[in-house]
Structure prediction request, 204 residues.
Amino acid sequence: MLSGFVTFEGIDGSGKTTVSRLVKERLRSQGHSVFLTSEPTRGWLGETVRRGIEKGVSPLTETFLFLADRAAHIQEIRSHLEAGEIVLCDRYADSTYAYQGAHLVGVLRDPIRFLQRASEGWILPPDLTILLRVSPEVGFERIKDRPHKIPFEDVAFLRRVAANYDHLAKARRFFVLDAARPAEIVSDEAVATIERRLGSRSPS
Ligand code: TMP
Prediction:
């Protein structure tokens, strides 16, 4: 039985939510215990993040709201990992590096470095991060008719976020999938990658 911490990342419209649900179903049908979660969380801290963003708080305030939500979420993730489950998380720390890394340009020098350092020592590192890569134009086309929950969604901004993801994806824990294809195909590849990467980890 596999266990480990897998995160799904990508710009808005990359299909993370659909793909992570399909991956959960497939892994469960193969007999694995799977806990699917997401950020911002559904709890009161996640609601506070959403409210803060709707109210237009500053990029730095927004950053600390996302970090506070994550700090609490990690306790829940850890308890599922300790129970031997695979934890799938639809957005996690790389979303902060990519999105707040774009929002904090002009506020701080080297925002991504700042955000990574602010996460050091308490963040739970994923075993695998699957980046669902689509062009900002495709991402925007997919989301343009959605009711706007969070106003981070214009093409120019998505371009900056996408560039940040491409930079982050050089780390070894990343696996990049072409997410312009149908969700079923992307999910199959994600499942194969999870089995390969989690299956080949040396026991800790
Ligand atoms: P969602 O659409 O995947 O629920 O995510 C909501 C928005 O929140 C999305 O535009 C990305 C943004 N976000 C950040 O800016 N920083 C973060 O750390 C997270 C988790 C999400």
Notes: The CA atoms of residues 109 and 195 lie 39 Å apart.
